[in-house]
Amino acid sequence: MKKVKAGIKRAVILLHGELDIGDFQLQGDDFLICADGGTEHAGELGWVPDLVIGDMDSISPILQQQIQNRGVELSIFPVEKDQTDGELALDYALGLEVEEIVILGALGGRVDHMLSNIFMLSQGAHRKVQIISGRQRLQVIDSQIEIQGQVGDWVSLIPLTPEVSGIFTTGLYYELRDGTLAFGSSLGNSNRMIESVATVKIHAGKLLVVHLQDK
Questions:
Q1: 3-class state of residue 113 by DSSP
Q2: Phi, psi (5° rounding) for residue 94?
Q3: What is the domain partition of the chain in residue ranges?
Q4: So what's the pLDDT on residue 105?
Q5: pLDDT tens across 135-156, in order?
Q6: C-alpha to C-alpha distance for 147 and 137, rounded to whole angstroms
Q7: Cβ neighbour number for residue 163 with a 10 Å cutoff
Q8: Cβ distance 138 to 182 under 8 Å?
Q9: Residue 122 and residue 160: Cα distance in Å, rounded?
């Protein structure tokens, strides 16, 4: 893993999708990665990235010069490449010694981009990697997750592999005890939290967990 400055526990990735950060707050010790056009969002928010990565086809030459003048690290890739700018950013973040990765600007806009951003969470299923958009938090798991929320919050469980088995949940209205969900099934959609903390554990497969705050 790449080492970052002492005390940094979280990497934040800014993509170029529709931006709704909700109540998310950037902390002074976060490591901020902008994927190409996500740099525009950073400017709007008044955030200064630690790294800008991608093919730079969405950044004006003026903005690119401005971020270089501020000493921001640039990692430039060719336009014709095998990964999206977002995937490059996630790969970099997964190589850092951080406890959590948050992705912003991942949803909205083109459906193909949005789905790619959601599915790439699978690469971090063994880590705490979340997409945050407004009141929604998305995370792919291959073992377990603890959801901090409120009674009445919505939780959906969406299988990303042909089958997700050995599912156990607590704190949800519809409980699963050694349950199985098949890819394409809507059985796990729109559950509700009946406690302020819910847990989901699985034995095999990869599961997309969507937490929507009720208010």
A1: helix
A2: -65, -20
A3: 10-134, 144-212
A4: 96
A5: 999 999 999 999 999 999 999 9
A6: 10
A7: 12
A8: no
A9: 8
Residues 178-196 pLDDT 10s: 999 999 999 999 999 999 9
Give ∠ CA 116-98-18 in degrees, rounded to 5: 35
Measured between alpha carbons, how far is 210 from 198 in angstroms, rounded to an integer? 12
Those residues with Cβ within 8 angstroms of residue 166's Cβ, 6 or more apart along the chain or in another chain: 178, 180, 201, 202, 203, 204
Residue labelled with tokens 């998305």: 138
Provide the CATH number for the domain formed by 10-134 in this structure: 3.40.50.10240
Q: Which two tokens stand for residue 182?
A: 């098949």
Which residues lie closer than 8 Å to 65 by C-beta, 6 or more apart?
Answer: none
Q: How is residue 4 written in tokens?
A: 């970052």
44 φ, ψ (degrees, to nearest 5) = -65, -35
Six token digits for residue 104: 């912003």
CATH number of 144-212: 2.60.120.320
Contact between residue 28 and residue 119 where contact means Cβ atoms under 8 Å apart? no
Q: How far apart are CA 172 and CA 150, in angstroms?
A: 11
DSSP class of 2: B
Sheet with 10-14, side-by-side order of all strands: 73-76, 51-54, 31-35, 10-14, 100-104, 129-133, 136-141, 207-212, 154-159, 191-192
Q: Give 166's Cβ-side CA count (13 Å radius).
A: 10
